[in-house]
Write a structure and sequence with these properties.
- There is one protein chain.
- The chain is of the alpha/beta class.
- The chain has a single domain, classed as Alpha/Beta hydrolase fold, catalytic domain (Rossmann fold).
- The chain has nine helices and nine strands.
- The radius of gyration is 17 Å and the shape is globular.
- It starts with a strand and ends with a helix.
Length: 284
Amino acid sequence: MTIERLSETSCFGGRISFYRHASSSNHCDMQFSVFVPPQAADGKVPVLTFLSGLTCTEENFMVKSGAQRIAAELGLMLVSPDTSPRGGDVPDDPDKEYDFGLGAGFYLNATQEPWSRHYNMYDYVTQELQALIFENFPGDAARHGLTGHSMGGHGALTIGLRHPDMFKSLSAFAPICTTLHSPWGQKALGYYLGADTSAWKDYDACEVARRCANVKAYDSILVDQGADDPFLKEQLKPELLEAACKESGLPLDLRIHDGYDHGYYFISTFVEEHLRFHAERLGA
């Protein structure tokens, strides 16, 4: 699989690079970023993939989180894909809003026209990106963790809980915990998947958690949430995820932090704890 390197620079003894490739899942060019730690010079290293939120690209986490210093210390490779397909022929929100279409792929496989050809971020993350990373970089596929923020937190939880064979550690920052009961989720899934809400359940973190068959796949699932997040009550609803995990027996560690909102100051404050959480479980 051919990838084009757009840029590369040194960072804390490792290398951070940005790439573009033709995507077979989304039928357009896609971009992603990778931080390779210095320990990769001696062999394969564990990998943590970060899924970003609404309006974000492959750049946000790498530029704003400050994660590379700790990742270099721990020997963790960091991967961050774009949040949606892009290009002139990729359909966008018909109302030109930020919460659907470009920058808002919701990490699902769309079934409705005109979205179904391009919006297949679930397959992209679970299949195509896997091949790209482990065929082209010194990452260890047996030691792969998943995390994300907001819409990407929704993606991390739904994908991670459905694929514990693929991901060995799981966390999220301020995730959309229920697309069924979030205006963001209702809008996006209504367009991408149609009016039948039974088809939405595979992409609702609470529903996936509630019916999780392998509750012992993860010894702990770490979720951090800011108490001053303006989206907390209407869009995110972590209390519903907490209830769903109690119902199924999933080991959720939900932490609410006074004074923190939804942005990258919040993420950068707690990213070290998440990196160490994953490194411990991935044997870094």
